[in-house]
Amino acid sequence: MPIDRRAVIGGAAGLATLAMTSPATAQEATVWPPREHFPLWPKRPPNSPRHLPTPNNEMSGQPPRRELHLSGVAAPVVGVYRPAKPDGRALLSLPGGGYRYLSVENEGINVARTFNPLGVTVFVLAYRLPGEGWLEPQDVPLQDAQRAMRLIRARAADFAIDPAKLGVVGFSAGGLLAASIATAFADPVYAPLDAADELPARPAYAGLVYPIITGDRMRVGALGAARFDTDRRVNRDTPPIFITHALDDPIVPAAQPMAMLAACQAARVAVEAHFFQEGGHGFGPAYLPPELPGSHWPQLFDLFIKRTLASQTTG
């Protein structure tokens, strides 16, 4: 996918950059982070090297698939997207990008655009990429995901959400991270910093969208270690799992999510899976034509969340 070097830098600098661009460029640009956001770590993140990566936010691709990609995440943040009528449910969205970049617009901002109208508050995590010089690189995405879950729960009243209704959704490499937080939510991958770290990181449910399931497919640091083969980590403490995948995916073979489906069934973990004939890879919540059945996965996931939460309440 071609990269446009006209970068839009996040935060206040990004707003200024957007204001100075021509109208044509401004219509294409996406600002990150959004106006409401919060940092994960009060100082340098854990596992920091001497020299942090350089932030690089770039618009990539051509219309209608022109979107923002992030790399060089040195200070991970969570973008907050509130619905007009919150119903207490919340999703932490974990974009993919092969752990080389974060597809933050397709698999983060578009998640908010899709689920906010359904009453769901969406938090988009710009997490650190393990191949960018971090010490013990295999741990840094999980560190960020655990910390994000705990901070969101610590501020649940501020966000008008129910901490018991907080789940995750992850895409591709972000699907591996979502599967990791669903199975390794209690792994001690960083030293506690404050009262928020006393809260659980376990999601109430996890959505895995064209997900990578085993760490060996990432080939980064020690990601092939057994603890990142998430299907092998499934047990009765694993939250309910929702899976969606296209059988013609040219990047992630269907055997990956099928292994997670089988593991959940073996462990008697509630699981729902939708395998569609067409869709390819990277379709997010908005990039499939409506005539393809796979375009309806957000509605299926919404129904799954509602049923899961109802069963947890009555059970």
CATH homologous superfamily descriptor: Alpha/Beta hydrolase fold, catalytic domain
Radius of gyration: 18 Å
Shape: globular
Helix content: 25-40%
Do you know the CATH topology? Answer: Rossmann fold
Widest sheet, order of strands: 2-5-7-6-8-9-10-11
SS class: alpha/beta
Overall mean confidence score, pLDDT: 89
Q: How many extended strands?
A: 11
- List segments where confidence is low: pLDDT < 50 over at least 5 consecutive residues: 1-27
Output the CATH class name.
Alpha Beta
Distance between the terminal alpha carbons, to the nearest Å?
Answer: 47 Å
**Helical stretch tally:** 9
Oligomer: single chain
> Could you say how many structural domains there are in total?
1
Major pleated sheet: 8 strands, mixed
CATH architecture: 3-Layer(aba) Sandwich
Describe this structure in words.
It is a single chain. This protein has helices spanning 11-20, 23-28, 105-115, 140-154, 156-159, 173-183, 230-233, 255-267, 297-314; strands spanning 3-7, 37-39, 56-60, 67-71, 77-81, 90-94, 121-126, 166-171, 206-209, 241-246, 271-276. Helices cover 29% and strands 18% of the residues. Strand 3 (56-60) and strand 4 form a beta hairpin. The model is unreliable at 1-27 (pLDDT under 50). It has 315 residues and is of the alpha/beta class. An 8-stranded mixed sheet has the order 2-5-7-6-8-9-10-11, sandwiched between helices. It has one domain (35-314): Rossmann fold (3-Layer(aba) Sandwich).
